[in-house]
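Supplementary Note 2. Why include the ligand at all?

Several targets in our set were suspected to adopt different conformations when bound, so apo predictions alone were not considered sufficient. For every target with a known small-molecule partner we therefore ran a joint prediction. The input for flavin-adenine dinucleotide is given below.
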Amino acid sequence: VNEPTQVLDKGFVRLESVMGSDLTVVNAARISFNKRSESLTEADKRLIQYLAKHKHWTPFAHPQVTLHIKLPIFVARQWMKSNVGVVYNEVSRRYVDSEPEFYIPMEWRGRPEKGIKQGSGDVLTGSSDLTCDSAYGFAIDASRGVYEAMLKAGCAPEMARMVLPLSTYTEIWMTASLAAIHRICSLRLDPHAQWEIQQYAKAVDSIMAPLFPVSWGALTSITAEGDPIASV
Ligand SMILES: Cc1cc2nc3c(=O)[nH]c(=O)nc-3n(C[C@H](O)[C@H](O)[C@H](O)COP(=O)(O)OP(=O)(O)OC[C@H]3O[C@@H](n4cnc5c(N)ncnc54)[C@H](O)[C@@H]3O)c2cc1C
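The joint prediction is reproduced in token form.
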């Protein structure tokens, strides 16, 4: 079992399995000429750069990676909007009634400056910070207490879970192509993405880079040039 990469206070991303490598990308492309490479050559590396640059995305869709991710429900809602080339399975609180865990942020961010609709502004300090801390603590303690009381009263887990907040941790398995994971990371590493989901994208990025050193580098450098492979 691979070591998980810790994310936020209680979350993680863990590589479950990987199918394929940079060579898979190369050979998926070389089938066009009914050719095959047995090991990655300099020409193969240049081919990968060419494919990424010219948005020949299908060779990047052959490698598949399975990740086990523990994340708050509100982050999972965002992450699981990405569906093309991706499958998910999630722990079900219809069946599981273990004690819920909640994301406790290190700091509270304020509303963004006037006119900006999404995201956060500066970190809250002083009484604003203290108010959020105590109100949030009260809310999650109440949720946990009510959840446990309902279970104790004989309520079905599938109904008792209705009191749990969006900050409750959930766990998913995600299997996706290299191309799809690159698309997710490029969307969620962007500074416009919520800070919490950026942390998950960074963890996934750090897992993918050594698995596909040439392909991941080629895909991400094309994105950095402002030419994202948006439709892969
Ligand atoms: C900063 C940010 C803010 C967001 N805010 C919101 C929000 O307020 N509300 C909300 O609901 N979502 C929001 N989203 C989610 C967003 O709308 C997408 O659903 C999400 O980013 C997944 O995109 P994807 O390209 O990975 O999707 P996938 O569904 O996995 O699609 C992959 C690609 O396939 C193509 N594709 C998929 N379906 C179609 C189709 N029907 N027709 C044509 N092409 C298709 C597109 O090229 C797409 O990029 C936000 C995302 C970000 C990054």
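Helices lie at 22-30, 42-53, 73-79, 126-152, 157-160, 178-188, 195-211, 213-224. Residues 109 and 123 are 4 Å apart (CA to CA). Comparable summaries for the other entries are listed in the accompanying table.
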